[in-house]
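Please, structure for the following, as tokens.
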Amino acid sequence: MSKSPQSPIIPEKDLPPSFRGAQPVVIPESGYQAHTESELVEKFTPMVVKWVHRLAYHPSLKQEIEDFRNIGLTALIKAKRNFNPTLGVPFEAYCSRRIRGSILDAIRKKFSGSRSVAAKMRKIEQAIYELTGNLERPPTEEEIAEHLSLKLNEYRELLDQVQKRVYISFNDQWARIESDEAIEEKLDEKQLDPSAEASNRDLQELVRRRLTEMNPKQQKVIAFYYYEGLRLRDIAEIMNITESRVCQIHTEAVITLRSFIKRIETTGTKECFRR
């Protein structure tokens, strides 16, 4: 399935300098083998840097940015050696998926988390699930805190505790929602299932509709981060709030979307928009 291009949410003049005038890397499939590994590294380093900044956003990872960059570059070289043009997948798309996957795998090893953290995340997700069913809309953070019998500052501290777990659990889920199924299936060497493709299109549309019902701050953080590709510190600058507050808003928004997807899987799409 090919995706229609998204309209830019932020005018380019308002973007951070590092994001202005960014152009995608394009290597003709027929000519990728003609490039040496050093030439490919030079051409694709911006892609690697993009994924590092996008994925390794958590403050605890800032000291390891160079390590993740090297992991991405190693994945790029392996991608060149393993690329199979007969799959009919663009070389750039193949590299992007391998780079992203290698960086995510490295982060997973660092963010494995404990059972207690997983239990806390499920507790928040269940609260949002129940409140959404009762209110027929996404709940506010004040409503979630009250449902959990917590003060607002205690609830925000809880969000801080589950950030890492939420990040890992949702990234692959979001990648599946926004993926081009045709390319993903070819890369997995599976037969494309038309019913699964249609289902994923429905999920994409429902998630976008749910985003319009979330509070404005959550909408902005999700749009800036997942659709515009901005880093959390850039989002903090644009929204004039602290990076830690952006992390909290991101965490709550992600759990809200996870809860929404769970409701779709449990009750079906018709029950998700009953108003």
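The domain at 131-275 is CATH 1.20.140 (Butyryl-CoA Dehydrogenase, subunit A; domain 3). Residues 127 and 144 are 7 Å apart (CA to CA).
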